[in-house]
Amino acid sequence: MRRLALPAAVLAGAVVLTGCGGSGDNKAELSVSSSYMPQPVSDMAAGFLTIANKGGAKDELTSVTSAAAGSVSVHETVGQSMEEVTSLDVPAHGQLVFKSGGNHLMFEKLKRKPKQGENVTVELHFAKSGPITVEMPVKSATYNPATGH
C-alpha cells in the first residue's frame, strides 16, 4: 500500500496544479510569422507580418525599432486612407495582420537599402508582453506571398 501512496500523491498534486490557470488564458501568447520587406527603391520601405495571439488576453503593439532605419512607424489603413498610429491591438485568440494595401510598418531614413535575400532585424514592442525580435527577409519589390499578405 505504501508503494502506491507516493505516486498517487504526486499525481494528485499535478492535477491540482493543472487547474491553477496555467493555460495562458489571463495573458497574451504572441508569435510572429509571414514577415517580409519588399526590396526598397528609395530611403523608405514597407514591412509586413502577422502577429498571432494564442492567449486569452489582448495586447497592443506599441512601437517597432530597427537599426536599419532612422525610424519605424506603424500605419493603419482604413478604406483608402493611411495614417500613423501609436498602437494597434493584438486581440486575444486572434491576429494582427500587416499586409499590402492594409496595415503596414513604414521604415524611414534607411541607413542603406537592403537587397533581396538579406534580412532586416526588427524588434516589436508591446504594452504587456516582452519584445519580440524578428528577422524580416527582403523579397523582390514585386513579391506577392501566397498567403495574401
Please render the helix and strand layout as text.
Layout: H1 2-18, E1 30-38, E2 45-53, E3 59-65, E4 69-78, E5 81-85, E6 88-90, E7 94-98, E8 104-110, E9 119-126, E10 132-139
Parallel strand pairs: 1-10
Antiparallel strand pairs: 1-2, 2-7, 2-8, 3-6, 3-9, 4-5, 4-8, 9-10
User: Major sheet: size, sense and barrel closure?
Assistant: 10 strands, mixed
* Shape by Cα distribution: globular
Strand segment count = 10
Indicate the mean pLDDT.
Answer: 86
Q: What distance lies between the first and last C-alpha atoms, to the nearest angstrom?
A: 62 Å
Please compute the radius of gyration using only Cα atoms: 21 Å
Helical fraction: 10-25%
User: What is the number of helices?
Assistant: 1
Oligomer: single chain
Order of helix and strand elements from N to C terminus: HEEEEEEEEEE
Structural class: mainly beta
List unreliable stretches of 5+ residues: 4-24
The proportion of residues in beta strands is: over 45%
